[in-house]
C-alpha cells in the first residue's frame, strides 16, 4: 500500500468515476485501475463497484475512506513538518470556520507573521463537519469554530460572542427589483435561533454561506440579511445600508479548540491567543 494508491482510491470515491479521477491525478485510466486492483488485493476486500455508469463504494470501501484520509493527512503533515525550510522551528495547522476568518483567522496569521516568523502556519477553512473531522484526524492542531464536537485530549474554551444584526440595503438606482431577504447560513445553532425568531417566515429564495458574499450581493441588488456586527465597517461603506433596529439580534458563541498534546509544546501559543482577543 502506498500514497499513490490511497490518493487514487480517495479521488475515485469522491468523483465516482475512474475517468474523472484519472484526469484529476493526471494519469491514465489504466493506471487508476491498476492502483485500485493492487490496493484491493493487499486489503483482501473489494472497495468499489465499478460500472460503466460510474463507481460506488462497497461497505468495506465506505469504512476504508476514513482510514485512507487519516493516513494521507498524517503522511502529508509529517512530510511537511520534516521538510520545513531552514530557519523554521515548527508548524501550526489552523482550522477556521470560513466566516470567522475576518476578526480571528486573519489576526492570528498577522500575529504569527509579526511575532513568530520561525513558525510555519497552514490555515484550513471549512464548515463545522470539516473542522471536527480535521481535528479528529490530526490535520489541524487548533481551530476557531462555533459548535465544536471535539473530545479526548482537546481543550475547548469560549473566546467571544458573535452578534448578528439585520441589515437592509436600499435598492440601487437602476435595479428594478431588490433581492428581498437573503438567508446567510452561519451553522446549525444560527439556523435554530433564526427559525425561532422568524417562525412565520418561509424559506428565503437566496441562501449564502458567507457574510462577505452576502454583503457583495446585497450591495449590488439591494435587500436584507443578517450580518456579523464585527463586519460593521464593511457594510457601512455602503451608504444605502442600515441596521434594522426592530429586528432581534442573534448571537453565537465562538470557541477555540486546541489539541493540548500539541499546543503544550508551543510556548508562544498563549500569547498569540491573547493578542488576537
Can you walk me through this structure?
The protein is an alpha/beta fold and 277 residues long. Among the domains are: 73 residues, Winged helix-like DNA-binding domain superfamily/Winged helix DNA-binding domain (Arc Repressor Mutant, subunit A, Orthogonal Bundle), CATH 1.10.10; 93 residues, 3-Layer(aba) Sandwich (D-Maltodextrin-Binding Protein, domain 2), CATH 3.40.190.10. The protein has 11 helices and 11 strands. The strands form 3 sheets. Strands 3, 4, 5, 6, 9, 10 and 11 form a 7-stranded mixed β-sheet that branches. Strands 1-2 form a two-stranded antiparallel ribbon. It is globular and about 65 Å long. 25% of the residues are buried.
Question: Which secondary structure elements does this structure contain, and how are they paired or packed?
Answer:
Layout: H1 3-15, H2 18-25, H3 29-43, E1 48-51, E2 54-57, H4 59-82, E3 90-97, H5 101-115, E4 119-126, H6 128-137, E5 142-145, E6 154-169, E7 182-184, H7 188-197, E8 206-208, H8 211-221, E9 223-228, H9 232-235, E10 241-243, E11 250-259, H10 260-263, H11 269-276
Parallel strand pairs: 3-4, 3-5, 7-8
Antiparallel strand pairs: 1-2, 5-11, 6-9, 6-10, 6-11
